[in-house]
């Protein structure tokens, strides 16, 4: 399938998904929403893909909803349905994908663009990146999972402050607040992101997927449920070929060669 608003490149088990509407700072119109859902589904389904990188073309990651397209809607348009079918599905695809997803935040991430970045598992920000909870600026409420992700990442006080102030925070502050894992000079982004992605793609993908699930489920469960969940997931990981290889590599004093199964 060919995409007009997104590009997909797969190399050495790493899929790089690039939002490609640079003239609008990669704002999401309906076509980009549809293509994003489709490409994420494909990345999730293809076993050969073991790590996914989301990034933007030009000077932005994404500025969220295309406000110019939104302005053309007639009175019949349901914004709630649009969010449900669009951004909710994108965030669900990222969060439930059983492999690591890296947000390579190359520039501004605003509104739903910020939400999509926050839904990824590892966030690498260029030093020029900014994060803007732009929703309130146009009279909307935070969506794209930000009411779930942001308070967990930076605490409820800072999350609320960002949401109502619409303040843009830079990469340095985002790092200090725990919003991103690492900040790198913009010209070093490609090599740093590639190094992270390859390292994750060479990991025990099945165990990474289960780890992601356990962390998400653990965030809303009791300790007792989390302990039980860990035991169940360990039962699965403990029967994987990668666990067998990990043990073998340990006793042979060599690096494991995981196949992701
Ligand atoms: O229906 C639903 O599902 C509702 C869901 C909503 C979820 C949301 O995402 S709501 C929030 C939407 N996003 C925003 O409100 C951000 C709007 N953009 C900005 O505030 C600024 O562009 C930035 C602070 C992000 C960056 O500012 P700056 O000065 O670096 O760039 P700029 O000049 O404002 O933008 C450059 C171009 O991108 C410009 O186009 P032009 O004038 O050169 O033809 C601008 O209009 C365009 N652009 C930027 N943001 C959007 C956009 N075009 C459409 N939609 C945008 N969101």
What ligand molecules are bound, each kind once?
Answer: ligand T3D
Describe the global form.
Answer: globular
Rg calculated over all Cα atoms = 19 Å
Q: Tell me the total number of β-strands.
A: 10
Look up the CATH topology of the largest domain: 2-enoyl-CoA Hydratase, Chain A, domain 1
- The number of distinct helices, counting runs of at least 4 residues, comes to 12
Based on the coordinates given, report the CATH architecture of the largest domain. Answer: Alpha-Beta Complex
What is the class of the largest domain in the CATH system? Answer: Alpha Beta
Q: What's the SSE pattern? A: EEHEEHHHEEHEEHHEHEHHHH
On the 0-100 scale, what is the average pLDDT? Answer: 97
Give me the secondary-structure category. alpha/beta
Low-confidence stretches: none
Throw out a few tags for this protein.
about 260 residues; alpha/beta; 2-enoyl-CoA Hydratase, Chain A, domain 1; Lyase 2-enoyl-coa Hydratase, Chain  A, domain 2; four-stranded mixed β-sheet; binds ligand T3D
């Amino acid at each position: 399938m060919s995409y007009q608003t997104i590009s997909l490149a797969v190399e050495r088990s790493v899929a790089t998904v690039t939002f490609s509407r640079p003239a609008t700072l990669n704002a999401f119109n309906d076509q980009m929403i549809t293509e994003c859902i489709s490409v994420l589904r494909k990345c999730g389904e293809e076993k050969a893909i073991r790590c996914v990188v989301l990034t933007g073309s030009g000077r932005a990651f994404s500025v969220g909803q295309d406000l110019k397209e939104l302005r053309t809607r007639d009175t019949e348009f349901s914004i709630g349905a649009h969010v449900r079918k669009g951004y909710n599905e994108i965030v669900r695809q990222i969060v439930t994908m059983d492999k690591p997803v890296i947000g390579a935040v190359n520039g501004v991430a605003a509104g739903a663009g910020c939400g999509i970045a926050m839904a990824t598992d590892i966030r690498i920000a260029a030093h020029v990146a900014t994060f803007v909870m732009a929703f309130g600026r146009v009279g909307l409420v935070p969506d794209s999972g930000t009411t779930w992700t942001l308070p967990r990442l930076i605490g409820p006080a800072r999350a609320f402050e960002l949401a109502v102030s619409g303040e843009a925070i830079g990469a340095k502050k985002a790092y200090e607040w725990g919003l991103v894992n690492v900040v790198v000079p913009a010209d070093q982004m490609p090599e740093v992101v590639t190094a992270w992605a390859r390292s994750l793609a060479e990991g025990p993908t099945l165990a990474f997927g289960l780890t992601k699930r356990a962390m998400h489920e653990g965030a809303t469960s009791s300790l007792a449920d989390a302990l039980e969940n860990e035991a169940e997931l360990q039962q699965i990981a403990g029967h994987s070929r990668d666990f067998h290889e990990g043990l073998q590599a340990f006793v042979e004093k060599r690096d494991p060669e995981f196949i992701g199964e």
